[in-house]
Fold this sequence. Notes:
Elements: E1 4-11, E2 21-27, E3 30-36, E4 44-51, E5 57-61, E6 65-69, E7 76-80, E8 85-89, E9 110-116, E10 121-127, H1 139-145, E11 149-157, E12 160-165, H2 175-194, E13 198-203, E14 206-208, H3 213-220, H4 232-242, E15 248-254, H5 259-266, E16 274-280, E17 287-291, E18 294-299, H6 305-313
Parallel strand pairs: 12-13, 12-15, 15-16, 16-18
Antiparallel strand pairs: 1-4, 2-3, 2-6, 5-8, 6-7, 9-11, 10-11, 13-14, 17-18
Helix pairs in contact: 2-3, 4-5
Amino acid sequence: GSRAFGQIDVANVGSRALLPARIELPVGRGRAEFFLPRLGAGAVHEEIFTIPTTNRAVIPVGPISSVRSDPLGMARRELVWTDVQELFVHPRTVSLGAHTAGVMRDLEGQTLKTVTDNDMSFHALREYVPGDDRRSIHWKTTARTGRLMVRQYEETRRSHLVVALSTHPGDYAEEAEFELAISAAGSLALQAIREEKQVTVITPGGVIPGISGQRLLDELSTIELDPLGTDLSELTRSAANEVPGASSVALIAGSVVTPTAWRGSANHIPLGALGFAVCCAPEQEVSRRSLGDLVLVGLPTLADLPRMMRRVGA
Length: 314
């Protein structure tokens, strides 16, 4: 939404004056032109330009070239000076603040029923067997019983948010719904990254790298609707196979998805995980309903997302 600024510096590194020329800069499908005046030896000319970023996109900028031609345009000499650079126009996102506490919960993980020899939640003591880690020996009990005793723990699961974003055209009534879905997915994933939670964003095209917020938004800038992509149910199945230990799963699609389809997709959410769905529908009102174990919220605008996340965790 904000304008991107660029700067071109042309320096005459020679010992003679540089004749006037025209500087050409391709930007996306357009082309910008700047007049380069006569430059003396060692002189520098600076041009500042802006690029509108009203739409999410990846805009190629460059290469920059200098052009000299005769007044009639019969002869032309062009020199290319730079490579093409890519400008990533990120989707709009909002900060959710503390509103995801009910969704991306459990700072120290959720306790499971699986017993392990190395974790955080103490469970019980048992007699030592060959191969046990000696660091787990409980010496006070060992001294009291006269037998080596080791600690056992209940395995814990770290909070891991999975965001399943549909890119199938049949799930959206219009392009605005798809853009809202991308912004919602980006906002949820960024909040998890800020809170140092694990997050996986998956589309029918595969898993989007979420190493950093910058990398995540760069990847979201490139996503397009894919007519050959799988439906929401199959996408949820893929997400469950990719992260079987997820603690929260967010399904994001448009208004065309029916309650039956939402409910069918929820059947693939891993057991024990909190499942919620975000129906991106700019023409509808804010809503919340339960479809079995799945919480379905209607999202008309991105600004409503923090308030809706409070209702998901309620």
